Amino acid sequence: MKRTMHFLAGFGTLALLVTLSASSASAQTNLAKAIQQKLAAEAAKLENSCADDIKKYCSDVTPGEGRMIYCMQAHEDKISTKCAFDLEEAATDIQLSGDNLKDAVSACKAEIAGVCGKAQPGQGRVAACLVANKSTASKNCIEALDKIEAMVAH
Question: Which of 104, 100, 102 has its CA nearest to residue 116?
Fold first, then answer.
């Protein structure tokens, strides 16, 4: 559980990330939107299942920058089973998402530098370029993009 809490604390800006990136949705690909929706669903699920624990143990904590997760970590021996389970599940999902995205960046390095080199990073523009040029991408890049698409489909 400590590993889970520590991992989630590293992603303490998850809700902020989802909020900020959703503000420019018109420039995003369906893939980028799907990833945001997946992260938002994880955040909502945690807010729901951990609400009572947060209220009970961390009501005086200012949210943001992982402070709430650190507070939950300090009280990990007291939080509900449902909250603990959902925290573990969220950590696993976030880790898998991060790994898949990192793999795609590595596998699509040539495409990102080449055909998508002029795409301004941010708001899903590089992802849009990769998806638009998937038919000319390397086998490894296509496989990495397929993993991400499969991940958000679930």
Answer: 104
* Dihedral angle computed from the Cα positions of residues 8, 42, 79 and 71, in that order, rounded to the nearest 10 degrees: 40
Cα R_g (the chain), whole angstroms: 17
Q: For the chain, what is the largest distance between any 2 Cα atoms, rounded to a whole number of angstroms?
A: 54
Question: Along the 154 residues of the chain, how does pLDDT read in single tens digits?
Answer: 554 454 454 444 343 333 333 333 344 567 778 877 887 888 888 888 999 999 999 999 998 777 887 888 889 899 999 999 988 888 888 888 889 889 999 999 999 999 999 998 887 888 889 989 999 999 999 999 999 888 887 7
From 56, 100, 107, 111, select the one nearest 78 (Cα to Cα).
Answer: 56
Q: Cβ distance 115 to 136 under 8 Å?
A: yes
CA separation for the pair 9, 13 (Å, rounded): 8
What type of residue is 80? S
Measure the CA–CA gap between 81 and 87, rounded to whole angstroms: 10
